[in-house]
Design brief:
Blueprint (H helix, E strand, L loop, with lengths): L8 H9 L22 H14 L9 H13 L5 E2 H8 L7 H13 L4 E4 L18 E4 L1 H6 L7 E4 L6 E5 L6 H5 L1 E4 L4 E4 L4 H12 L15 E3 L12 E4 L1 E6 L2 E6 L6 H13 L5 E6 L7 E5 L5 H11 L3 E4 L4 E4 L2 E4 L2 H42 L6 H4 L4 H12 L12 H8 L3 H5 L3 H22 L2 H16 L8 E2 L7 H4 L4 E6 L4 E3 L6 E6 L4 E6 L3 E6 L4 E2 L4 E7 L7 E7 L6 E6 L10 E2 L8 E8 L6 E6 L9 E5 L5 E2 L6 E4 L3 E8 L8 E6 L4 E3 L5 E6 L5 E5 L3 E5 L11 E6 L5 E8 L5 E8 L7 E2 L8 E6 L5 E6 L9 E4 H4 L2 E2 L6 E4 L3 E7 L53
Parallel strand pairs: 8-17, 26-31, 41-46
Antiparallel strand pairs: 1-3, 2-3, 4-5, 6-7, 8-9, 9-14, 10-11, 11-13, 12-13, 15-16, 18-19, 18-20, 19-23, 21-22, 21-24, 22-27, 25-26, 25-28, 26-32, 29-30, 29-33, 34-35, 34-36, 37-38, 37-39, 38-42, 40-41, 40-43, 41-47, 44-45, 44-48
Helix pairs in contact: 3-4, 4-5, 8-11, 8-17, 11-16, 11-17
Length: about 900
């Protein structure tokens, strides 16, 4: 530090200016401090990164973890040690106090991989902490003893105080970093590596060694499910969606059985409680019954949908979280950002190198043993220890020279050169060993050593196979204790506005031009949530979307307002407007799928004085009939005209529309309600998420109209129907899901437990009921063998047991049993022992429906040609047809 110190005359003058009588001034004490702090922060940052927060790629451990394991190995005697003793022993190597050591040891113990624990080590599910270190005990697990330690292949360094040796890295022969995961915050960077499944790591390592492709995804001890579509190999920039496992206990109670990683039952309940307090979820009570496994019960308020609540839990609570991985490791003494696949490949190659090094060390040891065993055999069998020169040798050196001379003819047989140390070792052989020497046993031992050396040479030439066998051995020995806990699924994106409870009410003050949820004395509009957007239409044709608020000024002359649903193309607005103060009346139908919030748009053509004279919003594209009354001054033959909106094509929101009237109107009103003009909607079922969708992924169930339903048949025999709402949740044990056909006949063959497990067949219709009904059997011992909806099913019954000699029966089930109620037992097929049933191809099929000859339709010449205009919400989507003006009143021309 002295080389940075120099005198500063200016500082010296300042010091002298502060001189007071009685103070003794020493000019040599004034020093220049510049440069002393120049590299200190960089040194500190490097130390934190390398020695505290980021794991090393070689063994997957942080320094404190490595020192704990090293201490536990030194203390290992097969028995449990008090954690307090382990912490104290580790302090010989770790210079940061006992608290950090104890915390790190508890975290390692909770991962249940390297540390075998005894006592209260806390609970990762509830977040409860471990007992004091003096009360709990630990020892190394058998897995740790197998794969982590080998002093012969360990590189050592001196500890911080120079009194002990500690490993630079441990020779771990397993991708420990990916199995345990790691998390740390350093200076300027952080690391977050998620845990992966033990067996999948072994399989991936085997594939990596063989040069095959593999994929690795996280597996969490807390269970749950994950969406890995954006995992990005665990590299920074990726993300992972993690969900809790939520089940229906009954229609009014939901149960959370598994929780997202990094969350506890306590923190999860806190987030659910906050959502309930904010009104986003309506529930009466939340109970925590977690013990050995998670059980959080959510009791719903009366009249609340459990399906919608499940989505709301994912949208507004920690039942669904995003985790951002960041695979940062120490390699070559500096931090590097890798993928988990890179880490796995490097770990597999390191395991291969360590196994090779162990084999080479073992080979050297065997060769050394073989060398001395051969030397010893010659020394004893040739009786080199006898003879006057040896017995009367004046010094040890003289004896060594005599032995060396006698052994010289045998040197070509030796593995290596015989040294003086070898001869001195021969002199240490006791006479008792010489007397009991057995040449055959010596030859047998030498042969075994040569065979082992030969085997090692063979392994060294095929190290990839050796490494593969190692991972297979580890997987077979320990894999059964580590099944996958987390299910990999594709999550559907839940839009918060679709699942949030309507926890607010929207009001409007038309006189003053305010809307909001706090105007409780004013006109009620609709229920809404605090995250909704509101679309507002004005009399002059302007409209816009605004965010919901307690009180918001939006202006007067409001014609219509409602909650705005983004990307909704089935809500159709039916509008009649006047172009200008005395212009033509236009009629149009359009949807608003996506617009910019707080930006003003126009339904009309923008002519000053334009006005909306009629408007409705139709959530499923309904088209009503309107009555337009002419102004008496127009002198029309008919005072009014009826027009059906179903005759008006749906166009984009910027379209001009069709001409309704060129003459003034006094009023336009509703004549009668109509039906949807959008037709049926195709519905798909995605088995990955057990949800319906309109996005063309999964199984196509068909095209559904307003009155159609979905039939769900469960594996336990329950069946029921639902509507085709995409918010519906379905069970995991679905046997069939399809569009409901009330005339479809089902055929089943089953062992009926109520009738001594004899084989029965039945044919029945499934009734339209929203309540669970069971067609199978009230006896849980009954067993289903066959279920089909074919019109003419055929089966072959194969016999077993004492009746195995019988000829199989082929049965036309449509002729064998008649159609009865779904609760009927059916008709007995046989009382003999049945082995299995196989389905046969039908011998006949339903006849195609007859094509009725259609009479030629008489076509009447239309007053005007009908023009179909493409539905579009964009200006370019209208082409040149968007401005086509069609007269709906021929007599007005």
């Amino acid at each position: 530090m002295d080389e940075n110190i120099e005198e500063m005359p200016q500082q010296e003058e300042e010091a002298r200016s502060d001189y007071r009588p009685g103070n003794k001034f020493d000019a040599s004490a004034v020093r220049h401090l510049s440069g002393m702090y120049e590299t200190w922060f960089l040194d500190y940052a490097s130390y934190v990164i390398l020695e505290r927060a980021v794991p090393h790629i070689s063994d997957g451990l942080k320094p404190v973890q490595r020192r704990i394991l090293h201490s536990m190995k030194r203390m290992d005697d097969g028995r449990y040690n008090k954690v307090a003793n382990i912490v104290g022993h580790t302090m010989q190597f770790h210079p940061h106090g006992d608290a950090s050591i104890g915390d790190a040891l508890v975290q390692m113990g909770q991962k249940d991989l390297l540390v075998d624990t005894q006592g209260n080590w806390g609970n990762i599910l509830t977040g409860s902490s471990a007992a004091a270190p003096r009360y709990i005990e630990a020892r190394l697990s058998k897995f740790a003893l197998d794969v982590v330690f080998n002093p012969k292949t360990t590189d050592w360094k001196m500890s911080y105080d120079g009194r002990n040796k500690e490993p630079i890295t441990l020779p771990v022969k397993f991708p420990l970093l990916l199995a345990q995961g790691a998390e740390g915050i350093a200076v300027g960077l952080s690391s977050k590596i998620l845990p992966h499944n033990f067996n999948e790591l072994c399989d991936a390592a085997i594939k990596s060694l063989r040069g095959e492709e593999f994929e690795l995804y996280p597996d969490f001890p807390t269970g749950g499910s994950i969406d890995v579509s954006k995992y990005n190999g665990g590299q920074r920039g990726g993300s992972l969606k993690v969900r809790a496992k939520i089940e229906k206990l009954d229609q009014k109670t939901l149960v959370i059985r598994e929780i997202p990683f990094s969350k506890t039952s306590e923190s999860l309940i806190e987030s659910i409680t906050k959502a309930i307090e904010k009104g986003k979820i309506k529930a009466r009570k939340v109970e925590d019954l977690t013990a050995a496994s998670v059980e959080i019960q959510i009791h719903l308020a009366p009249g609340i949908s459990s399906d919608k609540t499940i989505d709301a839990l994912y949208a507004f609570t920690d039942c669904e979280i995003n985790i951002s991985p960041n695979c940062c490791v120490i390699e070559d003494n500096k931090p590097k950002f890798l993928t988990v696949s890179d880490v796995l490949k490097k770990s597999a190659e390191q395991t291969k190198r360590l196994l090779k090094r162990e084999l080479e060390i073992r080979k050297d040891e065997l060769l050394e043993q073989l060398h001395f065993a051969s030397l010893e055999k010659i020394f004893i069998e040739e009786r080199i220890y006898k003879g006057e020169p040896f017995e009367n040798a004046p010094t040890v050196d003289a004896a060594c020279e005599y032995i060396d001379e006698r052994l010289t003819p045998f040197y070509p047989q030796m593995i290596r050169e015989v040294t003086k140390d070898d001869i001195l070792r021969l002199l240490e052989i006791k006479m008792q060993r010489i007397l009991k020497f057995n040449s055959d046993k010596a030859d047998e031992a030498i042969a075994k050593m040569k065979a082992e050396v030969k085997g090692i040479n063979r392994d060294l030439a095929h190290m990839t196979d050796v490494a593969v066998k190692w991972f297979e051995y580890v997987r077979e020995k320990y894999g059964a204790d580590h099944p996958r806990q987390t299910e990999i699924k594709n999550f559907d994106t839940i839009e918060a506005v679709k699942v949030v409870e309507a926890n607010e009410k929207l009001y409007i003050n038309r006189q003053e031009g305010f809307i909001g949820t706090a105007l409780k004395r004013d006109e009620f509009v609709c229920n809404c949530s605090d995250i909704d957007d509101i679309i507002i239409f004005y009399k002059d044709g302007k409209y816009k979307v605004v965010r919901i608020a307690d009180k918001l000024f939006v202006g007067k002359n409001i014609v219509h307002l409602q909650v705005f649903k983004k990307n909704d193309k089935r809500t159709i607005y039916n509008v009649v407007y006047r172009d200008g103060k005395q212009g033509t009346y236009f009629i149009k139908r359009f949807f608003v799928s996506s617009i910019t919030r707080d930006r003003e748009y126009d339904v009309t053509q923008g002519t000053p004085g334009s006005k909306i004279v009629y408007m409705t919003a139709n959530p499923n594209g309904e088209a009503e009939v309107i009555k337009a009354i002419f102004d008496p001054a127009a002198n029309r033959k008919r005072p009014f005209v009826l027009k059906d909106f179903s005759e008006v094509p749906i166009k984009g929101r910027i379209s001009k529309g069709n001409i309704l009237s060129k003459y003034p109107l006094t009023r336009v009103g509703l004549k009668s309600h109509g039906h949807s003009t959008l037709g049926g909607r195709k519905v798909w079922y995605d088995p990955d998420v057990n949800r319906l969708n309109y996005d063309e992924h999964g199984l196509l169930l068909g095209e559904f109209n307003e009155d159609d339903s979905i039939l769900i048949v469960l594996k336990n025999g329950d069946f029921y129907i639902t509507n085709f709402d995409v918010n519906n949740h379905y069970e995991d044990n679905i046997e069939r899901i399809e569009k409901y056909d009330k005339d479809k006949v089902w055929t089943a063959v089953l062992f009926d437990a109520d009738n001594k497990n004899q084989l029965y067949a039945k044919r029945f219709l499934m009734e339209a009921t929203k309540r669970h009904q069971n067609w199978f059997s009230d006896n849980p011992e009954s067993k289903l063998l066959y279920l089909s909806d074919r019109p003419y099913p055929r089966i072959r019954v194969n016999f077993g047991g004492n009746d195995v000699f019988r000829t199989p029966m082929e049965i036309e089930l449509e002729q064998f049993v008649g159609i009865k109620g779904f609760k009927a037992h059916g008709k007995r097929v046989t009382a003999w022992n049945v082995d299995y049933i196989e389905e046969l191809e039908p011998t006949r099929f339903p006849e195609p429906p007859a094509q009725e000859e259609q009479p030629a339709e008489e076509t009447e010449e239309a007053d005007e040609e009908t023009v179909n205009i493409p539905v579009s919400d964009e200006p370019n989507g209208e082409h040149n047809e968007q401005n086509t003006q069609l007269s709906l009143f021929p007599d007005e021309e």
